Amino acid sequence: MDYFTNRNGLELACRFSIKNQDDKKISIVCQLSLTEIFILSEFLFENLNCNTFGFNFTGNGNSQGEHTYAGFERDAGDIDDAIKYLSSLGYKVEAIIGHSRNAINVIVYSALYGQVNKIIALAPRFHMNPLPKFLQDDLEIIHQNKEIVHSAFGRGWKCTWDMIQELINTDMPYYCKRAKGDIYILHGDADEINPYWDSLEYVSELKEKCKGHFTLNCDHFFIGVFDEVIEIVF
């Protein structure tokens, strides 16, 4: 495990998977927000036929800082810092890949910074209202107590009322209008977590910036179609 320092002075955990030592082109696979349960990201990190770089956002995995269920612009800053870190090592980032919440992060990154031309969003959510079901179930408790702490894999994850409000008020049309580069959307038609129809909203809002919209016969986690994702992505 390696680390790089972000703009806020926090150490973010990262890893390299180098397939070609002589090639200075590299792709970023945004690693999982909370835990290693999103095995698709791990599969892509290990199996893409190119040099790859994976890192945990602020407050996630082995990275320093406080976790948030919102904070898309903060996470976009982490991506920008990762790119600067890779540039300092002589690498040129060719693509950024994000799944689920991280798919939103990569689109927000493209809107705020846009230095990487190829953006790949896997199962992104467009509408934050209604909230994801696991947050809806706790909404009354969060409203009453201003926060709730979930425990997962031996770690506590706090969700506050301010985070909920930020999620609800996330303006994805705003980011889509300002997105730059070539954006590719992949979504499973049986996704019960981030509705498949959300991907069509992205296609509509991104317009000509969406260079490909791919529908796969799978759930949110792309179980059973990992190889197909690899073929589409690269």
Q: What is shown here, in short?
A:
The protein is of the alpha/beta class and 234 residues long. It has helices at 39-47, 72-88, 101-112, 133-136, 139-145, 161-168, 172-178, 197-206, 226-233, and strands at residues 2-5, 11-17, 25-30, 52-55, 92-99, 118-122, 147-152, 155-160, 182-188, 210-216.
Walk me through the structure.
The chain is of the alpha/beta class. The chain folds into two domains: 2-128 and 171-233, Alpha/Beta hydrolase fold, catalytic domain (Rossmann fold, 3-Layer(aba) Sandwich), CATH 3.40.50.1820; 130-169, no CATH class. It has helices spanning 39-47, 72-88, 101-112, 133-136, 139-145, 161-168, 172-178, 197-206, 226-233; strands at 2-5, 11-17, 25-30, 52-55, 92-99, 118-122, 147-152, 155-160, 182-188, 210-216. An eight-stranded mixed sheet has the order 1-2-4-3-5-6-9-10, with helices on both faces. The protein has a two-stranded antiparallel sheet with strand order 7-8. The chain is globular, with a radius of gyration of 17 Å. The model has no long low-confidence stretch (mean pLDDT 91).
> What is the helix content?
25-40%
Arrangement of strands in the largest sheet: 1-2-4-3-5-6-9-10
Global structural class:
alpha/beta
Number of domains: 2
Work out the number of β strands: 10
Radius of gyration: 17 Å
Mean pLDDT: 91
State the name of the first-level CATH class of the largest domain. Answer: Alpha Beta
N-to-C span: 26 Å
User: Which segments are poorly predicted (pLDDT under 50) over 5 or more consecutive residues?
Assistant: none
- Please state the overall shape, judged from the principal axes of the Cα atoms: globular
